[in-house]
Write a structure and sequence with these properties.
With 477 residues, this protein is α/β, with parallel strands linked by helices. The protein is 55% helix and 9% strand. The protein has 20 helices and 7 strands. The strands form 2 sheets. Strands 2-5-6-1-7 form a 5-stranded parallel beta sheet, with helices on both faces. The protein has a two-stranded antiparallel ribbon with strand order 3-4. It starts with a helix and ends in a 13-residue tail after the last helix. The relative contact order is 0.10.
Amino acid sequence: MAQQLAELVCSVPTPSNVALYGPWGSGKSGIGNLLASKLKTRNGVRFARFDAFKYAENPLRRNFVSVVANALGVKDARFHDDLYRGRTTTDFAVPMRKLFSLVGIFALVVLVAVLVTSIGISIVAWVQGNDVFAELLRIGTATLPASLVPASLLTAVIALVGKTFTSEKRVERAESDEEFESLLTELVQKSGANRVVIFVDELDRCSSDEVVETLNAVRTFLGVDKCVFVVAADQQVLERALTDSLSQPTPVDSLNPYYSAGSAYLDKVFQYQISVPPLMPQSIINFVVTSLEGRPGVWEKIDVAVVASILIPSHVRSPRRVKNLLNAFVLTFRLAQSRVESKQLDLDVLESIDELARLVCLRVEFPLFARDLVVDPALSEYVRELAEPSATPANVWERYPYVDPSTRRVAEEYAKATRPVDRLLVDDSDSPVAEEVNSAQGQQLIDYLRRTRSVSGPTKALIHLQNTGSLFGLCAF
C-alpha cells in the first residue's frame, strides 16, 4: 500500500488531496512511515508529517506552517517566530537621488551662511572706513571655518540624514486564510522542492469539533501548488464529526441521500480515496510470527503461533492492538519470572505460558471482567458454561454449590452479555448505542472463552503473581 501510495502522490497533478481511510490502529501511521522512506529516493520530492491530535488545541494553521517548515529545513523567522508575534525592523539605505538632494541642501546652507557673513563684514568695514576687501580677507580667514558648521546646522543635518536614510518595517503575523495560503506557497518555493507531500495523521483521535476545525484549517492550504496532502483517518469518525459539527448547513435530499451525508463533503475535499483493508485472523497470526521470528528472549523459548492464537482474540484486527497485547504479555512474563526468582511465586512460567497468555488477553481486551476474576478465578468457567445454549443457571450452579450469590449474579450477567466488559468513550452509558456496544463486547468475551476452553485458569496465584499462602497476612508487622 505504501508503494502504491508513493506512486500516486508522485504522479497526480498538484495540488491534490488524498484520503487514507482505516480504523484506529489499522496501520495508517505505519504506512506514513513507509511512505516517507520511499519518497527519500525521489528527486525533488519532500515529505512532511503533521500530527493533528498533538496540535488540536493550539493555533492550528500557525503550527502547521511551522511544522512543515521544520520538515523542509527552512529556518526563516517568517515561518516560525513571526507566525505568533509581529516584528519591527529598521533598514538603512542610501538612494542616489536622496544623496544628491542632501548634498545640494547642505551646499545651499553653506552658501547662504558665507553670503550673510560676508555682507555683515562688508557693512562694518565700510562704516569704519576700512578697506572692505582686506577686512573680508582678514576676518573671514579667522571666523569662516567656525561659522560653516554651527551646532544647530549639524543637528539639522543629522536629523535630516536619519529621516532620509532610515525606514521602519512592521511585519504583522498572518491572520487571514489568504495570508496563510501565501505563506505556505512562499515556504514551498524557498524549500526548492518540485513536490511536497504533507501527511496529516491522527485526525480521527480528535473530538468531533476538533476534527471539523482541523479540516477547515488544513483546507486553507489544500490549493497550494506543488503540494499533495495525504490525510489519514477513520472515515466513519470523519463522517460522524461532520454530521455532528459541520457549521455549513447541508439540505436534506431524500431522493439523493448521498448529498445529505458527510461523505459528500469528504468527496469535495479529497480527489483520491484509499482504504486500508482489514486483516483476516490468520493474517494477524502470520504477522505476529513473522514479526517475532528470530527475536531473543521469551519468544525463542515458546511456540509463538500457539501463544498468539490464545493471546489475540479473533475480533482483533488492529496491528496496533496486536502490539499492545504482545508488549503486555512480555512485561507480565518478565514480572512473573522475577517473582519466581524472588520465591514469591512457585510455578514454572514456561509451563504456564498458555494460562499467562489467556490472563493477559482478558486484562487488555476485557478489563472489567479481569477485575472480577480477583473475586473468583473460576469466573471464566462459570460464564462459559452458563452461555451454552442448553445450559440453565440451576444446572450450572448445581455443579458449583459453594459459589457466592453475588458471584453467581455477576457470572449470569456476563453470560447474557448484559454486563460491560470495558468502559466506553461515551457520555451516556445508558443510551441504546452504548447498550448495543456493551452487548457486542460481551459476546466477544463469550466467544473468546469458548475458543480457549482448553486453556486452564488463570489461577489465583497467577492472577496475583504471588503464592496463595502469602495472600493471607502470614507476615508479622
